[in-house]
Amino acid sequence: MDHTIALIRKSHAGNRTARAQLVEENTGLVWCIVKRYFNRGVEAEDLFQIGTIGLLKAIDKFDLKYEVKFSTYAVPMIVGEIKRFLRDDGMIKVSRSLKELAYRGYLCQEALGKKLGREPCITEVAAEMQVEPEELVQAFEATGELESLHKPIYRKDGQELTLADKLASPAEETEKVLNHMFLKELLASLNKEERRLIYLRYFAERTQSQVGEELGISQVQVSRMEKKILKSMREQI
């Protein structure tokens, strides 16, 4: 972190070598994002070049007073640049089969939820539809409705709450646009019980008391675990 900040400080002072080094050291990050946009009718190298433009913008616009990792700030900038290019060039197209699968998936998800009395997971919906879970996830992602940090997870009295609202610290208030890849990484770092708690609280929208009943612990223990998990996730971000 200190190494990166030092390079950014030099880059802001006009040091082209430092700027070039930052680009080189973050090449892997750009490619990681670019891979998500393969098979969109654009050459991988072209997407990489567009992503690099986003990286350069992130380097130039990064405020040294931000209390976040540079990569956390850079990811949405890179993604935004690629999406803007694909949108402006009319390259973002979702096949009819994926749209139909996603539509059937949402209907099945709703019907199964009423039957089970809770929100079903992707695996359960896929099993009900007799399709592979990966295929269903791809359809949801392609139509832009996959659960993300910014999709509302709780609504009451006209107000909405997102998982990003829970994760963001005051210093990160303007940096809530985190990429879905970070959420996957964060959840993967949790143990089975912790992931279950987060799923029940923020995706199945259960109360702490309801979660406690399912996990066999008290509401107070759920509250303490939740605070501990969210604190750990913030620190990793």
From TrEMBL:
Listed PROSITE patterns: SIGMA70_1 (PS00715), SIGMA70_2 (PS00716)
Name the coiled-coil region(s): none
Q: Which CDD domains match?
A: Sigma70_r4
Q: Which Pfam families match?
A: Sigma70_r2, Sigma70_r3, Sigma70_r4
| Keywords for the protein's UniProt record, in alphabetical order | DNA-binding, Sigma factor, Transcription, Transcription regulation
The segment(s) forming the RNA polymerase sigma-70 domain are 46-59, 207-233
The job of this chain, per UniProt, is described as: Sigma factors are initiation factors that promote the attachment of RNA polymerase to specific initiation sites and are then released.
The family classification in the record reads: Belongs to the sigma-70 factor family.
Identification of the protein by name: RNA polymerase sigma factor
Q: What is the lineage of its organism?
A: Bacteria, Bacillati, Bacillota, Clostridia, Lachnospirales
